[in-house]
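Researcher: Please generate the 3D structure of the following complex. Treat every line as part of one assembly.
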Amino acid sequence: MKFLKAYNPDRIKEMMREHFSNIEIETEIIHISEAQYRYSSMDIMSSVNIPDFNKSTVDGYALMSSDTRGASESMPVFLDVSGEVLMGTESHTEVVENTCVYIPTGGMIPKGADAVVMIEYTEKLKEDTVAVNMAMHPGKNIIYIGEDINVDDIIVKKGRKITAFDMGALSAIGVSEISVFKKPKAVIISSGDEIRKPEVEIKLGEVRDINSFVVGALIEKYGGEVIYKSIVNDDEGSLFNEVEKWIDKTDIVIVSGGSSAGIKDVTAEVLDSFGEPGLFVHGAAVKPGKPTIMSCARNTALLGLPGHPGSSSIIFTIFGKELFKILLKKEETMAFYIEAELTYNLTGAPGKETYVMGTLELNDGKYLFNPLIKKSAAISQLSKSEGYVVIKSGTEGIQKGNIVKVYTE
Amino acid sequence: MKFLKAYNPDRIKEMMREHFSNIEIETEIIHISEAQYRYSSMDIMSSVNIPDFNKSTVDGYALMSSDTRGASESMPVFLDVSGEVLMGTESHTEVVENTCVYIPTGGMIPKGADAVVMIEYTEKLKEDTVAVNMAMHPGKNIIYIGEDINVDDIIVKKGRKITAFDMGALSAIGVSEISVFKKPKAVIISSGDEIRKPEVEIKLGEVRDINSFVVGALIEKYGGEVIYKSIVNDDEGSLFNEVEKWIDKTDIVIVSGGSSAGIKDVTAEVLDSFGEPGLFVHGAAVKPGKPTIMSCARNTALLGLPGHPGSSSIIFTIFGKELFKILLKKEETMAFYIEAELTYNLTGAPGKETYVMGTLELNDGKYLFNPLIKKSAAISQLSKSEGYVVIKSGTEGIQKGNIVKVYTE
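Model: Done. Output below.
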């Protein structure tokens, strides 16, 4: 077997990109009303202008701005109302000098008009005369053809996570169905003689499965779906057979745990045994989470995660997120952080990037970050966590009172 | 019809709580693997201790810490290996003075032992002897019974949005099914003679539906589900019939738009006509979004939203989010914000709370907030938005260069 050193997270992400970029995720066509949180598989361009007619943004009167020169509350101008624009129909009334036309919000600006005065700045005197109390400049309260969206504008980029607003924009340009990447399929294999499902009674010494639920939920959060979960015994044969069973039916196989000394050694061997390019990460310079394993074979990403819930959560937050970014060709977006004052001294681990989870608190208008510093196996701690900070390798630690960047996603 | 003044958002939220708190949302039992993003309908307590046995957090040797007093690399202590702890089984070997037992991570601490030395700090000399290079204090590398979770600890509170980590914690305590609120059901009625679905060809003057897609996706984001969408003509009869059709089959009816002057007046009347307590908001002191309507009748929340996509998005971000908070009894959580430097002068609207959407940019380690200041109807602007700032009523505005709070959710 290859012997590999523990790389730092940035180097591991580079290697992931090298190895996993070729894994092809199929696409499917879905209706836009189902598209929230899915990832577009192509650039979507507009074939229309929005608006496709000059449109009023207020309820009021469409008029010629030149007619309102100098108008004010004390000296209004008087215009004849020559008609009304109806919603949803082309308007045929033409505005000529000293006339105006009633127009609702969204109505089409009639020929001749170059501004709309809001109804609030007018006073109806007779059935067909209004006083206008305000001077209008050309274009006032009008949104012009293509001012919002132009023909050939890219509305949604390839790899974009579709938002509520994107769905509105797609509808606006008449796109009701789009092509998205299918959710990458994952199988989670929990290895461990002591691991039991939550449904069953346990004997002293056994523990219930935590990781497959945490990792499974993170997979969904990052855009994938778990098609099967299994628990196998801590031996090479069982593990090999289970991976072999799934490797051609799924995009990702995750081996979680393997907490006995024996299986730790064989997980890497097993994941390396399915062909080229095979194992490329065996150990990450991350605390917690050193025993991280990555391999690629038969168009499938193979990951081995540490057994500790704390470690496996951190590792999957870093590398699982990255995996889905690669598979779904995700658009580069900023990882937003919150700046907060650290309330407790933190120590970095030599030569490792250290991740510390914690809670955020608002105190006198300032955020405080309270690290959760119990033992890493504590699942109760993870549940409370609202974000994490990173202590870069080569840093001794961060002193209480310093401002840290807290990543909440 | 009642005449109501335009209240400020905080007052409206209070009134929403008064009127909508009694709308009862049914509950259902689901498996924890389906629970992410759902809201718990009860406090869930643990009936077990986690761990339920004293457990090693490392691979190493369980020993009596008193035997390692003074041990160091230059002066190790030598211990007899009297056995091995197997994963998942109760250990029967007892550790006595000058002996130790091999133990894997997660293994049960054998009787007599009060610390575990990591394998890295030991050296195996013969089959049954190890040199220990480090002094251990009692409790070292042990997680004790109940140290993570105690019997009767509340693991998930009523109204909590279940996270990946909660799912892990629930599995850990042997809870495989939980009771959650059903997703509140919503029907969206788009009113407008000019509104068309994205699938159909449009004539000049008509526009495609934007709001029902944006609002529908936000409803899903906040924890609900859209059971039906319809487009009705801009007249009182059509609107009344459509609301009547759905009011007893759903928890929320949303009337979006009604952009002609006529229907604006009747939406409030229609929503007030289904019984007590009826209309309680008719106009919000919010910019954009003044024509907001709220009513409550027949155990259903009735909302009228402005027709402008920009306005309706803002209004639903403020009040739709609040509605689901009330219906799902959501746990109080902090609304995280990012502090950013404003890149453009913003003006507040007199007497109104003004919401301005924009994009975030990192510049030299500092966040900048770039307001999107095109006309409010622009859907292309909304798609780009990454957050919003609020200009409180009574404030003239915010000058460029000031630090603002940007809400990204």
